[in-house]
Write a structure and sequence with these properties.
157 residues, six-stranded antiparallel beta sheet, 29% helix, globular
Length: 157
């Protein structure tokens, strides 16, 4: 369902609140995010913060959070930030992702802070920082997302 055009700041805030509620529900329903323990700390227009408490399921053989878990955390945060920058009902899909792993994280919480850098008609560029409890920059990602309606398949598989 498309987001109505705001006629005042109040409607805009209402849409933002509705979108944030949708994100919370979708995050709980998403098997990957739920399995990895991602929780939504903040959701505003073009900005999302996810938190993950580190436990044994996140660690690789050397006792630090696996890079794939960090990539999943940033991808999820970036996709949600893109969704928050679009009209309600817009679909979002990752097109490209580049991530730098800067520090190992062994315990505590990780915070993924994703912000839309630029959004166009069909693409959103998102920057995401992952920090630990000591505010160390653990990972940094730059991502591109497709935003808009998905074409219906003529021959679905």
């Amino acid at each position: 369902m498309p987001r109505p055009k705001p006629s005042s700041g109040t409607l805009k805030k209402t849409d933002e609140r509705i979108a944030a509620q949708q994100l919370r529900r979708r995050l709980k329903e998403n098997r990957t995010a739920s399995h990895l323990g991602f929780t939504l700390a903040k959701a505003t227009r073009g900005h999302v913060i996810l938190v993950m408490k580190i436990d044994a399921r996140h660690l690789q053989i050397h006792g630090v959070v696996h890079g794939g878990v960090l990539a999943t955390l940033t991808d999820t945060a970036g996709g949600l930030a893109s969704y928050m920058a679009c009209p309600l009902g817009t679909r979002v899909a990752t097109v490209e992702m580049k991530i730098n792993y800067l520090e190992g994280a062994e315990r505590g919480r990780l915070t993924a802070d994703a912000r839309v850098v630029r959004i166009g008609r069909h693409l959103a560029v998102v920057d995401c920082d992952v920090t630990d409890d000591s505010k160390r920059l653990v990972a940094k990602a730059l991502m591109t997302f497709f935003v808009g309606p998905f074409a219906a398949r003529a021959n679905p598989r």
